[in-house]
UniProtKB/TrEMBL annotation:
Protein name (record): Ribosomal RNA large subunit methyltransferase H
PANTHER family, alphabetized: METHYLTRANSFERASE, RIBOSOMAL RNA LARGE SUBUNIT METHYLTRANSFERASE H
Originating species: Novosphingobium clariflavum
Record lineage: Bacteria, Pseudomonadati, Pseudomonadota, Alphaproteobacteria, Sphingomonadales
InterPro entries xrefs: Alpha/beta_knot_MTases, RlmH-like, tRNA_m1G_MTases_N
Domain of life according to the entry: Bacteria
Assembly, per entry: Homodimer.
Name of the gene this protein is made from: rlmH
Pfam families referenced in this protein's UniProt entry, alphabetically: SPOUT_MTase
Length: 141
């Protein structure tokens, strides 16, 4: 299953970009990172179908790493070919996008800069795929 991060704003050369790249290289599943301008620009159509859309949103569900891995594993086992993770600009996502999404995911009640969210998401994607593969990286308590 393709893991596709679609984010508003440019990450350019930055410490956050280095973290994103570091974790993206560790993910053994197909991975893609796309950028959109802060305003305007269209979300690219899915590369593969069926597809699931996850919006990173402050109104989203808090999940443990194990729960996140379980969700991705279930979608993979159901035949989902692409899972898209949408990260909004400063104002987040509109009501229409939230209503259309398959899942709203929250990284806590604090507001995080979109550059940090990309790196944190990449790490959690790597962690989830490691959990599903039985890799010892993730140590659950």
């Amino acid at each position: 299953m393709l893991l596709h991060v679609i984010a508003r704003g440019k990450i350019a050369r930055s410490p956050e970009a280095e973290l994103l790249d570091r974790y993206a290289k560790r993910i053994t599943w197909p991975f893609k990172h796309s950028e959109l301008p802060d305003v305007g620009g269209k979300v690219p159509p899915p590369v593969q179908t069926p597809v699931r859309e996850v919006l990173l949103d402050e109104r989203g569900k808090l999940m443990s790493s194990e729960e996140f891995a379980e969700l991705l594993g279930r979608w993979r086992d159901e035949g989902v070919r692409e899972c898209r993770f949408l990260i909004g600009a400063a104002d987040g996502h509109g009501d229409e996008a939230r209503a259309r999404a398959d899942h709203l995911l929250c990284f806590g009640r604090m507001t995080w800069p979109h550059l940090m969210v990309r790196a944190m998401l990449a790490e959690q994607l790597w962690r989830a795929t490691a959990i599903l593969a039985g890799h010892p990286y993730h140590r659950s308590g």
